[in-house]
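Give me the fold.
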Amino acid sequence: MNWTFPAIKRLLDPAFPHHFYKSKIIEELDEFFDAVDEETPTRQLEEAIDVYHAAETFLRKVSSMHPDLDLDQAIQNVIEKNKARNKY
């Protein structure tokens, strides 16, 4: 897996439990939805990227907790699932 963003400093800190990363995605989604309703296209784009960053950080955390998981295969599985649904 090639990461887009640098790893956050507290990624491997056990003081930040797994659910922290899930709640961060929700927080960023809330900011994104607020921006879509009220902000400029640039701000909307930045908030969407924050969602992407939070999701990537969650994937890093899961990957560090379960090194046997194959994230690249998981991406391919999602692509195949969406192809089967005629999304592409």
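The CA atoms of residues 73 and 81 lie 12 Å apart.
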